[in-house]
DNA sequence: CGGGCAACTTGTCGCTGGCAAGTTAGAGTG
DNA sequence: CACTCTAACTTGCCAGCGACAAGTTGCCCG
């Protein structure tokens, strides 16, 4: 979050996060190695620990970045289209385009979920999601609103997860968002 | 799958799978250690490799077991209730009660997804899911059937994943299945 | 110009996964 | 009842990893 640039490397922290995202997208979070990241960035094996404390710290930073990016994507979609359907599409598209972040965000055993920055970023994303549901033509009654929100979240999250897992037996095209649209539409227009 | 029982330990293969499920449920798949499993089972550190080849082999076996258990659960629910809604509830309940299996099943980077036994078990589960959709009162037209299936799968899978991740901000009770029912009902009755 | 501190490096430890080579125990055969 | 064959392990080893401790480097500010 701080914008002062370090001296030695230039911006090791960001470089490590980017390298981590790339490595995770290739081989999954379990195969991530701090030493490999250090090698990719051309620094010593202990340099990552200085910025993130330990492996969980690095993944915590990735999760924070992910929740913030997701909130940004959802807000942008809502401002642009005002459509809950398109917000759902944006959710799925975010997952496809930020695979590593998404995988880490929803696997809390990998990072420190009690971190206050995580809580803030997660709430931002949650609020962006809730705001989307309120754009429905027929806003549901107060008590139903919660269930509608859970249903919307579940269907887009499920589609995104299954897409990333390669679980769909038939090919559904290249664009996860376009593939998701007719499916999400079955829940609401 | 072979039923002849080994001699030395009794049934080390099953014991290791059970211990692995327990360990993963506690700390996630990334923290799994073959040597720790061996210690829990009271055997040498190389014993697991004999049964499963390597770590991926063990997780492959876990995934196979998981897909088969899921297929069984879905079939049982359909035979008992004939209701797609209750099949969805059964899906969520399976995830909650077999957390370790479920997490591994849908994280293909952890195991060998090209394994033929995995493919068979996965297809069994897929067929059980499809069969559930056909129990709808108004079976959708052929071309819509695929989308209806994806929507049903997505909403239950998403709910299950979010539940396991502890992503729901408010507490929804102890039983994942009961919590999911009103949410799933929003997609179909 | 000099102290201070952030950004690293170097070195080390215990643990892990994976491989190779041995050992043991039961099952099948004559 | 020996004899052998083989599955089910064990022992020993190596490289890689995460975490920690103790140095070293280089910019910034007074």
TrEMBL record, chains A, B:
Organism: Phytohabitans maris
Keyword Transcription regulation in record: yes
Pfam families hit by this protein: TetR_C_33, TetR_N
DNA-binding residues (ranges): 33-52
Protein name according to UniProt: TetR/AcrR family transcriptional regulator
All residue ranges annotated as the HTH tetR-type domain in the record: 10-70
Record keywords, A-Z: DNA-binding, Transcription, Transcription regulation
UniProt cross-references to InterPro entries, sorted A to Z: Homeodomain-like_sf (IPR009057), HTH-type_TetR-like_transc_reg (IPR050109), HTH_TetR (IPR001647), MT1864/Rv1816-like_C (IPR025996), Tet_transcr_reg_TetR-rel_C_sf (IPR036271)
Record carries keyword Transmembrane helix: no
Top-level taxon of the source organism: Bacteria
């Amino acid at each position: 979050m701080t914008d002062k640039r370090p001296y030695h490397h230039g911006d090791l922290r960001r470089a490590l996060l980017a390298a981590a995202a790339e490595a995770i997208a290739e081989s999954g979070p379990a195969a991530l190695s701090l030493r490999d990241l250090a090698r990719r960035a051309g620094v010593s094996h202990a340099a990552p620990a200085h910025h993130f404390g330990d492996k969980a710290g690095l993944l915590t930073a990735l999760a924070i970045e992910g929740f913030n990016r997701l909130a940004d994507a959802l807000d942008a979609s809502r401002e642009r289209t005002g459509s809950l359907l398109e917000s759902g599409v944006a959710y799925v598209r975010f997952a496809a385009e930020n695979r590593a972040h998404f995988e880490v965000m929803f696997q809390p055993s990998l990072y420190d979920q009690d971190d206050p920055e995580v809580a803030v970023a997660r709430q931002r994303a949650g609020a962006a999601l809730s705001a989307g549901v309120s754009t429905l033509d027929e806003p549901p009654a107060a008590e139903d609103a919660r269930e509608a929100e859970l249903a919307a979240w579940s269907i887009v999250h499920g589609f995104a997860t299954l897409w990333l897992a390669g679980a769909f037996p038939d090919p559904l095209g290249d664009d996860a968002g376009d593939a998701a649209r007719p499916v999400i539409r079955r829940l609401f227009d």
